[in-house]
Design goal:
5 helices, disordered N terminus, alpha+beta, 9 strands
């Protein structure tokens, strides 16, 4: 089936300009952390989400969750947004779902394993707020520390 280009953003221009850079079976994906993968000798970072660092509470859980999402799927579709900081491709990654493709960033947010950051996507914001309200994943903690704060504290 065909995947529609997501259009739930106040950054409509950026979303419309996404392009598919990979569409097929991606057997050689290695998950570096909860929001970054290595594939085809490049690093890819998920757009609009920030997961805990590896040495931060829930960092390993976020990494393992993304690895489980990407493991053993029949196809993967990667939409390119832009080249970000450190030369990584900033992307949205889709995998098969029961009725329609699943967005890996959105799945991390729904599980409460990521913060929504600068996505401009209502679906991401809603998933983040719902996970937080329902105390899913890292939001079970009393005062979870956002990864950008963690990085400042652990330089």
């Amino acid at each position: 089936g065909r995947t529609p280009v997501p259009t739930t953003s106040y950054r409509q221009k950026e979303v419309r300009e996404m392009r598919i850079i990979f569409d097929g079976r991606a057997d050689m994906i290695s998950v570096l952390d909860g929001d970054t993968i290595r594939f085809l000798n490049r690093k890819f970072r998920l757009v609009g989400v920030d997961t805990p660092e590896k040495d931060q509470p829930f960092g390993l859980e976020a990494k393992n969750y993304l690895a489980a999402l990407l493991g053993n799927v029949s196809w993967t579709r990667i939409y390119y947004y832009r080249t970000g900081y450190y030369g990584r491709f900033v992307v949205r990654i889709y995998i098969p779902g029961r009725t329609r493709p699943r967005d890996c960033g959105l799945e991390l947010l729904r599980a409460g394993l990521a913060w929504e950051r600068f996505s401009g996507l209502r679906s991401y914001r809603r998933a983040f707020m719902f996970a937080r309200k329902c105390r899913r994943g890292l939001f079970r903690e009393e005062n979870p520390v956002p990864p950008w704060e963690w990085r400042k504290q652990h330089k």
